[in-house]
Structure formats: C-alpha cells, structure tokens
Amino acid sequence: MKHIPVLLDKVLETLGDIKNRTVVDCTFGAGGYSRAFLERGANVIAFDRDTNVVADAEQLKQEYGDKFTFINKPFSEIKELNSDDFDDVVFDLGISSMQIDNGERGFSFRFDGPLDMRMNANSGKSAKDLIETLSEKELADILYEYGDIKKSYMIANILKKNLPQTTFQLRDLIKNPKDVAPVFQALRIAVNDEMGQIKSALISVKDMLKKDGRCVCVTFHSIEDRIVKNTFRQWSQPIGDPRLPTLTSSEYEMLKVFTPDDAELENNQRARSAHLRAVKKL
Ligand SMILES: C[S@@+](CC[C@H](N)C(=O)[O-])C[C@H]1O[C@@H](n2cnc3c(N)ncnc32)[C@H](O)[C@@H]1O
Q: What is the value of pTM for the model shown?
C-alpha cells in the first residue's frame, strides 16, 4: 500500500508560507511531504537511506527539475550541507507503509520473510546478524530500552539459543503475543540506529538553521518523542544571566504540538502514536 502522509496539514501549517524557501525533507518515503512542499512553491532537498524510493524521487525530479534534489543517504548526512543551502527542516520518523508491508524487507511479523529490517538493504547488519553477533546482555538491553519488555533477559536467551532466520521464526519464539510487536520494534530501532540518527541530525540542524527557520519533527515512538521534546526544550532555554532578565533571550521558540485528530485516525491507523513538535529560530 502507498504510504499516506501523517499530519501533513499540520506540518504545512507549522511551516507557514514556504514559497521560494528551501525545505529539507529528511525522510522522503513515498514523497508525500516533498510533493506538498513543491506544490506550494518551495525548493526541496530530500534524504532517504532506502534505495527502493529512488524511482519515486526520480519521478519528482522529472516534474520539478532543479527545484528538487534527492540524496540517497541517511539524514545524519545533513551535516554536509551549508547553512545557506536551506531554510527549514522536516523529519517524519520511522518506517513507511511500503517498507512494513513488503515481507521481503523483514519488518513485519504479519508477513514471512528474511529477518532483515534494514532501511537500506545494502548496508549494515540485519536483525538476524544482530541477534547472532550481540551478547545476550546487549540484546536484552535493546529489548528493554526500545521495546519496554520486562522479560527482556528471558527473550534474549531464547533468541540466542534459537537464532531465528525469518520473521515468522522470530514471532513463534516469543511466547507472550503481547511482546511480539515490541520485540520487532526494538530490533528495528537498533538495526537502523534510529535514536543515534535523530540525535546526530538535530545537533547539526541547531547550528545550521537561520533566523525564522523551522525544524519540524513527527515522531511515532515514546523514546524518539522524548529525545525531540527534550532537545527542543533545551534549545528554547533563555541564555544569559537569569538574574538580569533584560539580558536573557532565547535562540529558539517552541511552536504548538499537534497530534492527529479523529478524522485522520479513522482514515489512517498508522497515525495512532504520532506527535508533531517544532521550533523556530529567533
Ligand atoms: C514515515 S516514512 C516518511 C513518509 C513521507 N513523509 C511521505 O509523506 O511519504 C519514513 C521514511 O524515512 C526514511 N528514514 C528513516 N530514517 C532515516 C534516516 N536516518 N535517514 C534517511 N532516511 C530515513 C525511511 O527509509 C522511510 O522511507
């Protein structure tokens, strides 16, 4: 199924008038956001680490020419751009419907396939490799931290003893059905270093945004959301001596937080846990 963009109206509302601005779409996916930005007269630089999206990106390139640039790399590479290259940055984190619904990619316990889970299927360790190479303790820590799984040690022990090769083998090794989705999620986050990616990209963005530039993040997971929330809070802290209020000022302003409304949730189950957070450089 084609990916339905989540919270797109709110992303556009948060960005405001983007005509002739350059927006970095850090997570191209099916190009839903990029297309909407281009339609509103923006230039777009889009990142995605998945090689499967290149055809969709080429399609937009044909339609919009120089106004659209696609970079088939992880968005932590935003550090290679210059401040003058862009005005606003948008992240729509996690995986797309195309990734989760393709059994061959190994993201879903609903389809049988190789236990892969790499967003870029040509680089890094798959979930199968990770289970094979990590120690039981390292594996348990990942399950606990990214899946909030209480019996993480027990599950890590079973995985290390059985070394699942496919999604269904992994699913069938997990005794409590309630743990299945969290185990898959935890492994996916670790395989793709998702928390490391967002932390590193935000560090670069903070130094690069110009006055009035916005950074907008749509998150789908509580740890990811906490990272974004705490980072934006920190950026918006007043700087200067708090005893001298006239000398304190903030570098960033926090903007309104949005979650999907009932109409969007009815239309798109995948919007369920989404939060939009944003800041503006002052
Ligand atoms: C939720 S989808 C984005 C959907 C997109 N906004 C749309 O409207 O079609 C997330 C996409 O971001 C990509 N992605 C996730 N983390 C990434 C990273 N660190 N670097 C580059 N791409 C990443 C995934 O490969 C996936 O295609």
A: 0.95
